[in-house]
């Protein structure tokens, strides 16, 4: 199953009037892959991800997510993926445990499954002492790690992460990526958007969007070799300058 494509995108576009926020992008993502979707703020990453997770309809093109068509089977896509948005997605006025219980119900888990997952997640994240505290009291880094773990509650085939490490410190960013590695090792496909070019080094393959188009797509090693540079940031700068 490792070589099976779980995301297939062909000439996908999203227009707002005459403006092409996403302009005929094509790519595929294999099962268990960590796929980086890179680009500066405003490059079209979030618009693209909204189409892929079934909350925004494309203007044209084709895409299947976990075997489901983005036009006809948006609800099936939502049931088979996890999603963590740019902005913190959990409820500040609920406790850690209450958030886990609530989202477990949203994902259709049984009470027995929710009870088991809640215990596992609290232990895994080391949140025993704050499990009954409001999420609003947690540092941002802990909130982000909790949100990521909650997005995995229902064992989705694919998890979409939209700028998951924005605003957190470097140490927490590294810890977050260790969680991503673990999820990928367990077979979950990770689709992650970021404007931190150093995070591209952690991905199996990356695409780089510039003004709504994918201008480069390959492994970080091959991209750096092609553009004759030692860093992904320099690759991005060369592409952005045209």
TrEMBL record:
Coiled coil regions, renumbered to chain? none
Q: Which domain of life is it from?
A: Bacteria
Membrane topology field? Multi-pass membrane protein
Q: What is its main location?
A: membrane
Q: What cellular-component terms does GO give this entry?
A: membrane
- What is the annotated localization of this protein? Membrane
The record's listing under InterPro entries reads:
AAA+_ATPase (IPR003593), ABC_transporter-like_ATP-bd (IPR003439), P-loop_NTPase (IPR027417)
Q: From which residue to which does the signal peptide run?
A: none
Please list the residue ranges annotated as the ABC transporter domain: 7-236
Q: What is this protein called?
A: ABC transporter
Q: Which organism is it from?
A: Hanstruepera neustonica
């Amino acid at each position: 199953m490792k070589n099976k494509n779980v995301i297939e995108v062909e000439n996908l576009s999203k227009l707002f009037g005459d403006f092409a926020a996403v302009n005929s992008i094509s790519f595929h993502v294999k099962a268990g892959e960590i796929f980086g979707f890179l680009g500066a703020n405003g490059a079209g990453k979030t618009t693209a991800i909204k189409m892929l997770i079934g909350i925004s309809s494309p203007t044209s093109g084709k895409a299947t997510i976990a075997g489901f068509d983005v036009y006809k089977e948006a609800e099936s896509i939502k049931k088979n993926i996890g999603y963590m948005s740019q902005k913190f997605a959990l409820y500040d006025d609920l406790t850690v445990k209450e958030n886990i219980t609530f989202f477990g119900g949203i994902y259709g888990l049984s009470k027995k499954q929710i009870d088991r997952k809640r215990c596992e997640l609290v232990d895994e994240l080391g949140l025993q002492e704050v499990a009954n505290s409001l999420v609003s009291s947690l540092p941002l880094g802990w909130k982000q790690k909790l949100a990521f773990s909650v997005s995995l509650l229902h064992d989705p085939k694919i998890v979409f992460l939209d700028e998951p490490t924005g605003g957190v410190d470097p140490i927490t960013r590294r810890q977050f990526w260790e969680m991503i590695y673990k999820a990928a090792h367990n077979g979950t496909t990770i689709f992650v958007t970021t404007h931190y070019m150093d995070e591209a080094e952690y991905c199996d393959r990356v695409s780089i969007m510039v003004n709504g188009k994918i201008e480069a797509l390959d492994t970080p090693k091959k991209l750096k070799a092609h553009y004759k540079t030692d860093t992904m940031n320099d690759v991005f700068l060369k592409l952005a300058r045209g």
